[in-house]
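Internal tracking record. Fields below are filled automatically when a chain is submitted to the structure queue. Please do not edit lines marked as system-generated. If the sequence contains nonstandard residues, flag them in the REMARKS field before resubmitting.
Queue: standard
Priority: normal
Entity type: single polypeptide chain
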Amino acid sequence: MLRLDQVEIRRGGAIGFALDRGITVLLGPNGAGKTELLEAIMGLRRPCAGSIRFDGTDIGRWTPERRARAGIGWCPEGRRVFPGLSVGENLELVARTSRAERRRRLDRVLDHLPTLRDRLGVAAWTLSGGQQQMLAIGRALMTAPRLLLLDEPSRGLAPMLVADLFQLLRRLADDGLIVLLAEQAVAAALQIADRGLVLERGGLRASGTADEIRSHAALERSLLG
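SYSTEM-GENERATED OUTPUT FOLLOWS
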């Protein structure tokens, strides 16, 4: 579904991998290039070199809007919900499709996020931090993505809410959605991930299954120094 070949988000560091299922977590210290990589895949920044292919097509010149229409969902760091709009308006705003299809998508999203069902008419700014994060994920799901990119979704959440969030991502992946997320909650993320990638200074330092990455020396060196 997604393939990166020798992608350089910074000069001197090459990244290459392919995703076709499950959850892959991007790990590394602050400044490692996790956010920049996600933004490059979404089309929000242009890499210095390399190619990004989605469904076999080179999308290097595609706009973020075209990538979203092709099936790439985006959940940025900081939630960034529209505070003056209601929960329902936040969700429906991004679904540029027929009313009937929008309703079907909304029902599917609310099945995954039942806590939002009774809050559709509530202003987004009144939600708790955890609820806003779920709303941000629900908004991304309203675009009917096949690949979902998430940047630090657990930041600022209590441990119990982090567990709920990761369980949701695991269910989505089990339903067929491909998930790529950047995370600082290493232990919790590796518990639900199928695969891990360790970035350092804009380059890929290690890759493997979650179990392999959990015990990899590159992870300890990258995160602990």
